[in-house]
Amino acid sequence: MATYYDQLILTSNGTRVTYHNITSQIRDIVKKSHITNGICVVSSPHTTCSVIFEEFVHDKDFNGDEYIQVDLNRILNKLVPRQLTESDYLYPGQEHVDFLHGLDDPNYPTDEATILNADAHIRASFFGSSESFVLKDKELLTGAVGYIYYIDWDQNRVRDRKCNVMIVGD
Questions:
Q1: CATH number, domain at 58?
Q2: SS3 for 10?
Q3: What CA–CA distances, in Å, run from 170 to 43, 77, 135, 153?
Q4: pLDDT tens digits, residue range 43-71?
Q5: Quick check: 100 pLDDT over 70?
Q6: Quick one: pLDDT band at residue 110, thresholds 50, 70, 90?
Q7: Helix, strand or coil for residue 122?
Q8: Domain of 91?
Q9: For range 1-26, the mean pLDDT
């Protein structure tokens, strides 16, 4: 049994939901792993990001988003509207704001508008932070149209996001 770990760094656009098609990068990582059969886990450590498995759609809007992503955003905007003010959602409460201000971490700036992202946390909770894929004969069993996407639901600032990849097998 062998394990292989790698990580992608993906930059969000900071103004709208960011979709990264990471399929080719994951396939490259599988090749580098030299693992023939096993499981490939693709995971985000960020609470406002998700990894999903979806059909690749060739048609895109002028922002470069695939039509299925545009449709998904339209539905989610109705179910979980964007948080624009502190009164849109209960999150974040004062105790959490105080906690974030106490962090000595550049990923958590003191601009309180950047933490008005309850919608991003809720969306990420709906979709989850990871996907697992079967690896057989050095190939991901994703079918002809199945692609892997990393989504940053947070629309408040540009950030570099981590995507962890762990492959376990023979």
A1: 2.60.120.460
A2: strand
A3: 21, 43, 10, 35
A4: 999 999 999 999 999 999 999 999 999 99
A5: yes
A6: low
A7: helix
A8: 2-38+46-169
A9: 97
pLDDT over 70 for what percent of the chain? 99
Q: Looking at the 3D structure of the chain, how many domains does it have?
A: 1
DSSP state of 96: H
- Using CB atoms within 10 Å of the CB of residue 17, give its burial: 0 to 12 exposed, 13 to 18 middle, 19+ buried: buried
Total residue count of the chain as it appears in this document: 170
User: Per DSSP, what are the bridge partners of residue 136?
Assistant: 139
Tokens at residue 1, please?
Answer: 């049994």
What is the H or E stretch that residue 72 is in? Answer: helix 67-79
Joined tokens for residue 160: 């570099």
DSSP string, 107-150: TS-S-GGGG--HHHHHHHHHH-SEEEEEEETTEE--TTTEEEEE
